[in-house]
Amino acid sequence: MWKALENISAFYANPTRFMNLAARLHAPLWGLALCVLAYGLFRALTVPEDYQQGETVKIMFVHVPAAWMALFGYSFIFAASVTALIFRHPLGHVAARAAAPIGATFTLIALVTGSLWGQPMWGTWWVWDARLTSMLVLLFIYLGYIAIWQAIDEPTRAARTAALLAVVGFINVPIVKFSVDWWNTLHQPASVSRLARPALHADFLYPLLIMGVGFLLLFFALTLTRMQMEILRQKLRTRRMLGQ
Amino acid sequence: MSVFWALCRQHMVLAWRGGHTTLAVAFLFIGVTLMPFGLGPELALLQALAPGLLWVVLVMTLLTSLDRVFQADYEDGSLDQMMLMPLPLEFVVLAKLLGHYIALVVPLLLAVPLAGLLLNLAPAHLPMLLLAMAAGSPALVLLGGIGASLAVSVRRGGLLTVLLSLPFYVPVMIFGAGATQQALAGEIDATRLAILCLFSLASLLAAPVAMAAALRNAVR
Amino acid sequence: MTENTMPKPQKKFLPVPYAKPADLQLAGVACTRGMRRLFEGVSFRLKAGDGLALYGPNGSGKTSLLRQIAGFLPLAAGTLSIADKAPYGVHFMGHADALKNALSVGETLAFEAALWGAPKAKDPLLDTDRWLTHLGLEGRAWQAVGDLSAGQRRRLALAKLCLAPRPIWLLDEPMTALDEAGRHLVNALAGAHLAAGGVLVASSHVPLDFTTDALTLGAAA
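Predict the joint structure of the above. Result:
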């Protein structure tokens, strides 16, 4: 099976072949993503009201999947960077670069929805809750990664430096999560309640999973589109350099 | 081995002569001085916040000093030479960071009690604070070095170094500053100190490899 | 200099012959910078005593080839083999002279000796004076490197070549900024190096006296 995977990935290392594949996948992927999201939103909005938190708990259906995608996004960047660095697959850099702003946006969505969700409970727009704090640090990790691409002029060097950061920074994510969790449990003032997750019985669980799948498909659709854009941009740059 | 110490000594000499040590200590004091202007001169408040504030200012001082560690060598061609020296690049990096530590971090740690005076730091908190800083500062220098080595080819990459290093600093700061917050007068918070030492040790093993990879990439 | 033969190495420069004679071979080496292929199909073999001059217009890849041999830049194609390569057997002298302005000339020499693993001298002070005289920097032991002229800096950059003998020298435009005396110095050093069994590759815009062979890049473009 590994050999088959290797062959497939080597086959698509050629940008032209990849673009052909991407063109074929583009419409179906977007269509599927939007359909699943629509269905998920429908299920989410028709879920019976929670007696504790009322309507606001519905934000959870955006907040939680967004948080999942924030973490998934960085794992994707890590995997793509490893593929690019160690297996020398040329599309690894393209994939990682494409996914970064998307992951960062999901992180931002998670933060904003988390803040909106908690505001009625806390009375303020922000608390240093463990999850929100971890998300905030994750946002800075994304921003640092994106900053490297912008700061280094030469594309190949930028790609390798960014990949190095992604690989080295990946181990930091669980460490940050662990540290922030510990920090938060000690500093928790009694009056502030955390973003309480309602008991996940089936009524809540299924819409949540559907939204999760929808967000995942959206992530891949967006990343694929951005990869196509990036490859076209590179082609344009090469043509300009050769004076065509 | 003598190559290692020669590199270390060279970096220390350059740091002293370039005024980096004085600059760093001055930066520490300036940072601490800004705090009362922002928070108000009430001594009780400052005393409550002092350990955390000192940690923040120390971290900021370290970060701003770290981006020059490798960049000067990158700019004048010494980085090329370092790759050819009879010492693996990982050890070259360690030698430079050790020089940086002795030349900059030790004076900073010595200056912390004085700076704490400005913030009315309770004398009972001082031993724990210094112990935590001493235990965590190797981690800070090594992890900051990773950010510095990634940003080495960027001119004026100081801000980039800070942005790249900060996520790595969060765990160290949580345990470092937390060590003082929780400790009662004279009591040693052994768990946190142990974790800080663990961070420093882990950084010592992992960071040089990452830094050497980043520097080799920059030299291409 | 009007002679075409290699200058005879003067007695004071004669180093101990290299224990393992150098042997550098490139076959079909290509180089890519950014997205441009700079050159391809570069092949040559240098045995003990061979000196190769690299000529070519700006941007033809002379520096890149030197950096590939030094190991800084990977090869886009081809092979590079250094026979009997003791680790760290290469000296690279690039455009940037890798000198620290804040140090004095004497300190620079002392650090270079330590950093390159030069054998310890019996009397360091005496040694410093000797090297300074060799390099044409007499009496400047206490002068800050930052105060030296460009030519003097280049001379000081040659110090590591003398202090730590290594069989392979890679010199990027070694005659830059040097006056006639400086060029004599480089010729003498290179001549002694080759006589001791070393090899060197030097890029240049002017013809070099100490090389035995030449390769022009970018000629077929």
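Helices of chain B lie at 2-17, 20-39, 43-76, 78-84, 89-118, 126-150, 158-182, 190-219.
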